[in-house]
Amino acid sequence: MTEEDRWAIAHAEEDGMPVLFRFRSDFPVKDTAQFPYLVSILWHYDGARNGGMPGEPTLAQMNRVEDALEIIDRAREAFLMLTVTGNNRREWIWYTDDRDRYMALVNRAMPRQPKFPLDFATSEDPSWTTYRIIRDASHPSDDAP
Predict the structure, then answer these.
(1) What does DSSP assign to residue 50?
(2) How many domains is the chain partitioned into structurally?
(3) pLDDT of res. 7
(4) From edge to edge, which strands make up the β-sheet containing 37-44?
(5) Out of 47, 52, 66, 90, which residue is the most buried by the measure of CB atoms under 10 Å away?
(6) Spatial CB neighbours of 45, under 8 Å, sequence gap ≥ 6
(7) Residue 48 and residue 54: Cα distance in Å, rounded?
(8) What is the pTM for the complete model shown?
(9) What's the pLDDT at 111?
(10) 3-state secondary structure at position 52
């Protein structure tokens, strides 16, 4: 992510629990089809004591993951477009042009210890429909860092 990237935050509710969406306000590329693969990174956690939100230790670990992966975004190898936090999960939505290369970059960027409880899934989404649906349905409350 570069300093000129703008992010927004939107709030919602899912299963009676708050959910926070943080998403890029603008497209980092003109032709989304050049990055046709959506990669979802999912972290399930126990947020029972926090209304479905992560506790401070878990949040710090999640921030460590996101900070480690930022190099991939800065290099424009793939783009983090959306994070969803709440209802006992955090999900990062990335778009890339090469799934295998993206996973190799993740493995290189991630800290060796500890192992984080991450599940990866990929799908084709050349129009970035998943990102567009969230962005277009959201009414951002304010800009996010």
Answers:
(1) G
(2) 1
(3) 93
(4) 118-124, 37-44, 89-96, 78-86, 17-24, 7-14, 142-144
(5) 90
(6) 54, 55, 58, 88, 89, 90, 117
(7) 9
(8) 0.91
(9) 65
(10) coil
The per-residue pLDDT for 137 is 87
95: which 2 tokens? 């778009």
Q: Is residue 52 part of a domain?
A: yes
One digit per residue, pLDDT tens: the chain, 145 residues?
445 678 999 999 999 999 999 999 999 999 999 999 999 999 999 999 999 999 999 999 999 999 999 999 999 999 999 999 999 999 999 999 999 999 999 999 986 767 899 999 999 999 999 999 999 988 665 555 5
CATH number at 107 reads: 3.30.70
DSSP line for 3-49: TT--EEEEEEEETTEEEEEEEESS-SSS-GGGS-EEEEEEEE---GG
Confirm whether 1 is domain-assigned: no
Structural domain containing residue 20: 7-144
CA quadruple 54, 28, 105, 40: dihedral positive or negative?
A: positive
Q: Which residue has the tokens 């603008």?
A: 26
In a domain, 2, yes or no: no
Q: Is residue 115 part of a domain?
A: yes
Return the pLDDT at 4: 60
